[in-house]
């Protein structure tokens, strides 16, 4: 019952099928080859044209299967693996047509009904399929293009609007912690809350937490927060704002790095009418402290705050410019804080043990490490929290059997503070957890960016209220390295956080690593030159060489304009 078509050019598939027959669910290409002694470059070109051709005749959720001989694909699935330059680079070639590698498995001719190997170049010599692999490709969601976004919130009993920093446009108001959400971050929060409610009376205070905060953050570098500056005039409509008439102005820390007072606060430039300076909240702890100081606090009750927080940070595997924080606050009599901490940690342990064992089959170790004896390098979450105030303990989650805490496994902190409450001095215990890191460690998600993907294949793996081990739908994504070197402006300290933030912005979080590979200072003039290597890679989307080249050019332009460096 099948229709057989002969002499089909695989690089022009749509020319051989009528429009109504161009919706294929699956396209197979077993052992493609240009013929004769074609080298790897010509075969890459063949695959590139084939994938572009397939994209024109494949259904939205269709698959492209390509079988290659052992070593040709150039992925880690090939054993032994060829050097990248000597392979067909199939994942990079497919990415150019918008495809990602979603599965790969051994090619077994005997399992395919009717498949027959006809030999090697029509000779008696058999075609070798030992170690051959079948590569299964699916469509990627397109790379996003983020337009400027205006966020409207209520602040000090009035509505205000502000422009969202571009690097956060796809992360504002995602609703991961809403009641009807099946996102793993929400599931982890629900399980923790349910477990702690067995030991403490709970009170949620999420409803009163503004995205914007005002005031000093003691000990925190001002280049690590997203500043928002609002003028005192009445807020205008969204339409007026989008037309450029808004009175909400956004500045990056780069803009006022050179014009701050001795306390690090911005000096408004002449002609700029500014009354108050705000920043996107980098932590929920100031809100917890404000609740206590207002007297809206019940001793003995565990108050729970949760929501996204925002921080500028260097690009590392566990550094997140936004994540969901959960804060527990409880007041106890002086001298009882140690037992409160232990009880709090025990119930958190029980909850996480239960979740992790359900997902992966074994219990992780959850340990407290005293801050005073802390020597291991912290991840970004713990390092930032340690700047905010005095920390008693770090909460470390060990997910292997080595007994050591990896850099990314510091998922929480515990601190204490003395307050005068209800005419007596009480000790308030604060516990802060990074829900995103917890979800990653429990579900085996290796890249924090996957939590924010718009690809529906992510959430499909987590039905309502159920956590599972995550299975990536984009295997062995290609990576691309680009170097940039420049002269630093004379007499100025190079702002590395700003450098990394610009890389995040222009690439849409496609830069996974920035390494300083060379530093040079001219003896005669004292001018300093830096050379960095940027590695681009997507965890969920097809990313092509051409797209990366465009990002790199834009990055060079942006650092030249915003950091005033001289490109080499």
Question: What is the CA-CA span between the terminal residues?
Answer: 64 Å
| CATH fold annotation of the largest domain | BirA Bifunctional Protein, domain 2
Low-confidence stretches: 232-275, 373-377
Query: What is the CATH architecture annotation of the largest domain?
Result: 2-Layer Sandwich
Secondary-structure-derived class: alpha+beta
Q: Give me the CATH superfamily of the largest domain.
A: Bira Bifunctional Protein, Domain 2
Radius of gyration: 28 Å
Mean pLDDT: 82
Total beta-strand segments:
21
Describe the structure.
The protein is an alpha+beta fold. The protein has helices at residues 40-55, 90-95, 184-196, 238-245, 285-293, 337-360, 380-388, 435-443, 456-459, 496-507, 545-562, and strands at residues 24-30, 58-68, 99-106, 133-139, 150-155, 158-163, 202-204, 212-214, 227-230, 248-250, 276-280, 302-310, 322-333, 365-370, 393-398, 410-421, 424-434, 480-487, 511-521, 528-536, 566-567. The protein has eleven helices and 21 strands. Mean pLDDT is 82; it is low at 232-275 and 373-377. A hairpin with a 6-residue loop joins β19 and β20. α3 packs across α6. Helices cover 23% and strands 26% of the residues. It has three domains: 13-139, Rossmann fold (3-Layer(aba) Sandwich); 176-209 and 278-460, 2-Layer Sandwich (BirA Bifunctional Protein, domain 2); 480-567, Ferrodoxin-fold anticodon-binding domain (Alpha-Beta Plaits), CATH 3.30.70.380. The chain has a seven-stranded mixed sheet, sandwiched between helices. The protein has a four-stranded mixed sheet with strand order 1-2-4-3. The chain is globular and about 95 Å long.
């Amino acid at each position: 019952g099948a229709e057989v078509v002969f002499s089909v050019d695989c690089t022009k598939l749509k020319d051989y099928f009528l429009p109504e027959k161009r919706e294929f669910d699956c396209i197979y290409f077993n052992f493609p080859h240009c013929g004769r002694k074609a080298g790897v470059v010509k075969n890459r070109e063949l695959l590139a044209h084939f994938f572009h051709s397939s994209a024109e005749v494949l259904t939205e959720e269709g698959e492209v299967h390509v079988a290659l001989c052992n070593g040709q694909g150039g992925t880690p699935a090939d054993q032994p693996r060829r050097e990248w330059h000597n392979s067909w680079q199939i994942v990079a070639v497919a990415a150019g047509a918008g495809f990602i590698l979603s599965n790969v498995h051994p090619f077994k001719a005997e399992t395919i009904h009717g498949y027959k190997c006809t030999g090697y170049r029509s000779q008696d010599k058999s075609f070798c399929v030992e170690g051959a692999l079948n590569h299964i490709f699916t469509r990627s969601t397109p790379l996003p293009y983020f337009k400027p976004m205006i966020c409207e919130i209520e602040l000090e009993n009035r509505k205000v609007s502000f422009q969202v920093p571009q690097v956060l446009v796809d992360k504002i108001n995602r609703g991961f912690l809403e009641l009807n959400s099946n996102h793993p971050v929400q599931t982890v929060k629900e399980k923790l809350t349910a477990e702690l409610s067995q030991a403490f009376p709970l009170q949620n205070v999420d409803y009163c937490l503004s995205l914007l905060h005002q005031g000093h953050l003691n000990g925190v570098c001002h280049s690590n927060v997203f500043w928002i500056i609002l003028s005192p005039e009445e807020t205008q409509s969204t339409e007026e704002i989008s037309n450029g008439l808004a009175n909400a102005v956004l500045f990056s820390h780069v803009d006022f790095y050179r014009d701050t007072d001795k306390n690090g606060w911005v000096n408004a430039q002449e002609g700029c009418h500014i009354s108050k300076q705000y920043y996107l909240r980098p932590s929920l702890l100031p809100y917890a402290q404000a609740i206590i100081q207002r007297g809206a606090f019940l001793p003995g009750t565990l108050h729970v705050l949760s929501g996204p927080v925002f921080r500028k940070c260097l690009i590392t595997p566990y550094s997140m410019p936004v994540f969901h924080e959960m804060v527990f606050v409880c007041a106890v009599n002086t001298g009882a804080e140690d037992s409160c901490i232990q009880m709090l940690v025990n119930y958190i342990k029980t909850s996480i043990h239960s979740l992790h064992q359900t997902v992966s089959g074994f219990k992780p170790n959850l340990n407290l490490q005293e801050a005073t004896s802390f020597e291991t390098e912290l991840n970004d979450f713990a390092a930032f929290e340690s700047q905010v105030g005095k920390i008693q303990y770090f909460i470390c989650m060990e997910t292997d059997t080595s007994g050591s805490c990896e850099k990314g496994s510091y998922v929480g902190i515990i601190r204490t503070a003395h307050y005068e409450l209800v005419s007596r001095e009480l000790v308030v215990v604060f516990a802060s957890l990074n829900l995103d890191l917890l979800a990653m460690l429990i579900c085996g998600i290796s890249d924090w960016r996957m939590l924010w993907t718009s690809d529906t294949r992510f959430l499909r793996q987590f039905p309502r209220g159920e956590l599972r081990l995550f299975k990536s739908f984009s295997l062995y994504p290609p990576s691309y390295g680009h170097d940039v070197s420049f002269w630093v402006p004379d007499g100025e300290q190079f702002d590395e956080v700003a450098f990394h933030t610009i890389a995040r912005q222009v690439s849409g979080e496609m830069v996974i690593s920035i390494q300083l590979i060379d530093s040079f200072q001219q003896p005669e003039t004292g001018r300093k030159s830096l050379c960095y290597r940027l590695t681009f890679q997507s965890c969920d989307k097809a990313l092509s060489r051409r797209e990366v080249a465009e990002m790199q050019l834009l990055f060079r332009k942006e650092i030249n304009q915003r950091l005033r460096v001289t490109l080499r």
